[in-house]
UniProtKB/TrEMBL annotation:
One GO MF term: L-allo-threonine aldolase activity
Natural source organism: Nitrospirillum amazonense
Domain Aromatic amino acid beta-eliminating lyase/threonine aldolase: 5-287
Family: Belongs to the threonine aldolase family.
SUBUNIT field: Homotetramer.
Keywords: Lyase, Pyridoxal phosphate
GO biological process, one term: L-threonine catabolic process
The protein's required cofactors: pyridoxal 5'-phosphate
The protein's name in its UniProt record: L-threonine aldolase
GO cellular component: cytosol
Positions carrying N6-(pyridoxal phosphate)lysine: K199
Length: 336
């Protein structure tokens, strides 16, 4: 039985106030463009990210795919990091469904893509190559907030070569909180930005893709093609709207809890903790205790993700300071 769930910020449950907002939502048929709550959500997200228009989609995976397909046609290519979500963790949708070739390149230690590597990956105008159309970045990546100066330089490089730029901003508000700037500043320069509502913001489902009017119009058609056209979806959109209006400012609490958790875990020599930028921290567990430690946490109701001796702990609105203290006490009990 899970008592303290640190697996992901996707495990959050709607609060009573969010559920009430869902129950009270005014709805209409969104495929016909008649749902007023969806419209308010799209307009609010676009305004917060400094873009002209927004599009509500069922998931971040579909949002990224709609963006990639809006930017690229069959035989086109996008440059992306090896560990980027829209390349590695979304079932190859760009290639399988969009006939878009990914050109992955290695990340630097800080999560960035070296500008020289991006430039080297851009193909010349030659019929032997796929046509490079797009640079896709992700912020945050593995919980790390990419520097504003880096993103500005990367987008400028893309522009010099005639490329568009997409930001997978699933946790863009976490990035903005860590960097101490408005989310629109993180999104500046990108043609499209995808933001997830069902991670740290606490909504049960949904993402919003924002960008200029022509790209969002194109993405709306693609959403329908991908099966993402929904009807009285204002009931769900109301949760996303509540999240944007009430849960952005509190992300700083999640970051503080992650730092508190990291400090506590660092006290144990068998655990090597990567200091968190945001709400995600990684912990390398000594091989001789890894299996027993994972079993101990599970037996005591502390849920984390663990692969190859590396744990990922994620703080969110459903694990407060008391939950962090309880988890640390469970860890201490193992090492006594």
């Amino acid at each position: 039985m899970i008592r303290y769930d640190f697996r992901s910020d996707t495990v959050t449950r709607p609060s009573p106030a969010m559920r009430q907002a869902m129950a009270d939502a005014e709805v209409g048929d969104d495929v016909f463009g008649d749902d007023p709550t969806v419209k308010r959500l799209e307009e609010t997200a676009a305004a917060m990210l400094g873009k002209a228009a927004g599009l509500y989609l069922p998931s971040g995976t579909q949002s990224n795919l709609a963006a990639l397909m809006a930017h690229c046609g069959r035989g086109d290519e996008y440059i992306v990091g090896q560990m980027a979500h829209c390349y590695r963790w979304e079932a190859g949708g760009a290639a399988v469904l969009g006939s878009i070739q990914p050109q992955p390149i290695a990340h630097q230690a800080d999560g960035t893509l070296a500008l020289a590597d991006i430039q080297a990956a851009i193909k010349p105008d030659d019929p032997h190559f796929a046509r490079t159309r797009l640079l896709a970045l992700e912020n945050t990546l593995g919980g790390r907030a990419l520097p504003l100066s880096y993103m500005k330089d990367a987008v400028a490089l893309a522009r010099r070569h005639g490329l568009a730029a997409h930001l997978d901003g699933a946790r863009v508000f976490n990035a903005a909180t860590a960097l101490g700037v408005p989310a629109a500043e993180v999104a500046a320069g990108f043609d499209t930005v995808s933001v997830c509502l069902s991670k740290g913001l606490g909504a049960p489902v949904g993402s919003v893709l924002v960008g200029e009017d022509d790209l969002i119009t194109r993405a709306r058609r693609i959403r329908k093609m991908l099966g993402g056209g929904l009807r009285q979806v204002g009931i769900l959109a109301a949760a996303g709207l509540y999240a944007l209006e009430h849960n952005v400012g509190r992300l700083a609490d999640d970051h503080a809890n992650a730092r508190r958790l990291a400090g506590g875990l660092s006290a144990f020599p068998a655990l090597t903790v990567t200091p968190p930028d945001t709400n995600i921290l990684f912990v390398a567990v000594a091989a001789d205790v890894a299996d027993a430690f994972n079993a101990h946490l599970k037996a005591h109701g502390v849920a984390v993700t663990s692969t190859y001796g590396m744990q990922r702990w994620v703080t969110h609105l459903d694990v407060d300071g008391a939950a962090v203290d309880a988890a640390l006490e469970t860890v201490a009990a193992f090492f006594r």
